[in-house]
Specification:
- This protein has about 130 residues and is mainly alpha-helical.
- It has one domain.
- It is built from five helices and four strands.
- Strand 1 and strand 2 form a beta hairpin.
- It starts with a strand and ends in a 6-residue tail after the last helix.
Length: about 130
């Protein structure tokens, strides 16, 4: 990717499967954002609303915001790495080169939970996209 004449220009390879490329960019931005010296946080995170002069509430709100950021980072990290930690892919890659349909039910369930965790992070990213400021 390069920047030219006020536009981002993507290579053919990047465009071929842009979800991985964009996921890596978003992951890195979220990590830098989380590690920055932030002063603010959203006034409402997962139904925890800011209450003025309530330090315990503020602490819970900040902790919840950090948890939301971690979930977003997890999702984009996994996508940027082609979801290589998916239990079903790990099972398949460990010499179980048979049909995925023969995977043990436990592995299939773990794979569904893994996918749900990624989906949760993506949903939170969409929900809090406009709160990614400081």
């Amino acid at each position: 990717m390069r920047f030219s004449k006020g536009k981002y220009i993507f290579s053919r390879k990047e465009l071929w499967d842009i979800q991985y490329h964009l996921a890596a960019i978003i992951r890195d931005a979220l990590i830098q954002f989380k590690n920055s010296n932030r002063l603010g946080f959203p006034a409402n995170v997962n139904n925890i609303k800011y209450v003025e002069d309530d330090h315990e509430n503020e602490k819970r709100l900040q902790e919840e915001w950090e948890s939301v950021l971690d979930k977003m980072i997890f999702a984009f990290t996994e996508i940027s790495h082609n979801e290589e930690n998916d239990p079903l892919l790990v099972w398949y890659g460990n010499g179980n080169n048979t049909d995925y349909k023969s995977a043990p039910e436990e592995v299939v369930q773990e794979s569904h939970q893994y996918d749900e965790k990624i989906q949760e992070g993506l949903k939170l990213f969409a929900e809090y996209y406009r709160a990614l400021w400081d």
